[in-house]
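Before we proceed, please read the two lines closing this message. Tell me what the token row says about the fold.
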Amino acid sequence: MCNSQFLSPLPTPQTMLQYPNLEQALKYYFGYDSFRPGQRQIIEAALQNRDLLIIMPTGGGKSMCFQLPALLKEGVTIVVSPLIALMQDQVETLRKNGVAATFLNSSLSQYQVRSREEYILAGKVKLLYVSPERLVSERFLPFLDLIKEKIGFAGFAIDEAHCVSEWGHDFRPEYNQLILLRKRYPDVPTWALTATATDRVRADIVKQLGLKQPSLHIASFNRPNLYYEVREKTKNAYSELLELIKENEASGIIYCLTRKKVDELTFKLNHDNISALPYHAGLSDEERTQNQTRFIRDDVRLMVATIAFGMGINKPDVRLVVHFDISKNLESYYQESGRAGRDGEPSKCILFHSFADVKTIEWLIDQKNEEQEKLIARQQLRQMIDYAEGTVCRRTIQLGYFGESFVGNCGTCDNCRFPKPMQDLTIDTMKFLSCVARCREKYGMHYIIDILRGAKTQKIIQNGHDKLSTYGIGKDKSVDEWRFLCRSLLHQGLLKQTTDGYSVLKLNELSWEVMRRQREVFMAVPIAQKVSVLKESTQLSAEAELLFQRLRNVRKQIADAQGVPPYIIFGDSTLKLMAQNKPKSKQDLSKISGVGSHKLASYGERFIAEIHRYLQENGISSTKSHGSPTDTELVTFEYHKQGLSIEQIAQKRNIRSTTVIRHLSDLIEKNHPVDVKMLVPKEKLQKIWQVLDILGDISLTPIKEYLGDSYSFDEIRLVRGKWRHEGKK
């Protein structure tokens, strides 16, 4: 296969000189008008040849932090990536944006490898993705020396850098050898990137990679677009899962603890006409790869998987992540649930919690050889249980784990939206603990509950426990209620349980404090709560939703023809903007966030044609469509009337500032009384207006070049909206 099929033309130096400003380069290559929080500062540091340690959560835009510097610096950027699927996906995404990128891995033939190496040495590649195993191999190191001699290096980007640390959640020994890059090329900057890392892991990354006084950038771990909920796993859990899937008609991932449960759940879902595929280590490499590809390309809705699935999977439109079993630790749960909503759109993360799953994990921990390893694993499991049983804001617990404080009501977790009532269960606790004591701490939970409920089992009668004073004093509560109480006592440390496989209940000092009436016991009462979470920022009108689905079909047709995942063509958020704004020309389409110059040229006509067909078929006039404010624009306008700033509106609505700017500028053109003077200083407003009178209605970039760096794209966009409206009078 010809190597050119894997590469895109490299932008000429003349082209790059036309976009010296970072925002201009961002729009040209990737189609975005502004950076996400922290990205600009990181990119500036990278352009200054600094070593970097970037801790940025999934969906925060880590890749942009090394991809844009790679395009703006001389030489090749080497990207170390641990998974073949991940590097292939990122390279394909870059190529669709017109960026010269390629990868070298075991999926290629010798001819393909040689062809790509020739392209690289000819200066036709800006980003080269390799695995850590290939990079440190004896054959590859001389090739790196050739690149250094002929082309030079812009930098080394180490993705998934937490893999370098034994304290990380996904340690990989081959990452420890990457320090040879620093020893072999001491003057080339190294950029380490990961989604999660505790203080200990961060220190390990710096040491193991030999980073020199790295610039540390830690983004907020808060993912405000994600809704978190924990549900008790009852006998109706599967029915609840089906309901969740039917409520969210989009891609989803369901995590299970064991291969057996993955296979069973996949079978049941398919039997209920839900398209799902399994993924676990028991499948062949070929089957895993095939299933993953079908999921990424939207040929199947759901992936049912063990934690073997997911690291580095760049599918931004996953709307539902369900943990049908509890995770082993909070860091893994954050990572796995964080695979939802990478594009910033609202998504749900649901965890089903049961004590039986906890016992399964405890058994797995007991199989470990090292006592210290067991101790750490039990501590991590304890933190996970505390999260599942917690009654405070889920984000407070999550972010606190990573050393980030969060105070207040997040509004997007079950505990904040539906606070559970606290109930004094001291008397019931005394009954339970007293029964454990009278049975001389020799039995497990189920036997104690049978005594409390007055069961007439043969074992109870043989032991004479039907004569105990606690026999039958708990008939007023169901088995499930007593189980909940017992588990809560174990989680709160008010009761102990042996770990020798028999799960015998044992009292401790806190247990005796309760029985002596020296300690009260309050617990959050579980309540059945069916939650449906929608955010106004992404609600589409019925009309826009129909067009959105048609645009998704066009995207899928293009993607299938090119053999790539649909999101590589355009993301859901970009299609939603098309459906809302209904651009009538390629010039209009170029203003949509996510539409860069290369994608505009490649796909613009197809999407414009589909929008025109939709408008004609539904008898929607272009003027009316353009002149009527959308629902989401009107919500923004209401906040603007209240005097809120752009940043305050963005925070209130949980959308980006650039989206607020677009709403307001469009509203201005639609003759809504937006007060531009509140948004742009008077002197700047007058100057921008003068320049528009001179240059006319052209794109923003040449206007900004004329005005200089002291004027922002946002200011120009707002004034241009007012100028356009005045010009129509």
About this structure: Residues 1-19, 528-538, 622-626 have pLDDT under 50 and may be disordered. The chain has 35 helices and 17 strands. The chain has five domains: 3-218, 226-417, 422-524, 540-628, 632-729. The domain at 632-729 is CATH 1.10.10.1390 (Arc Repressor Mutant, subunit A).
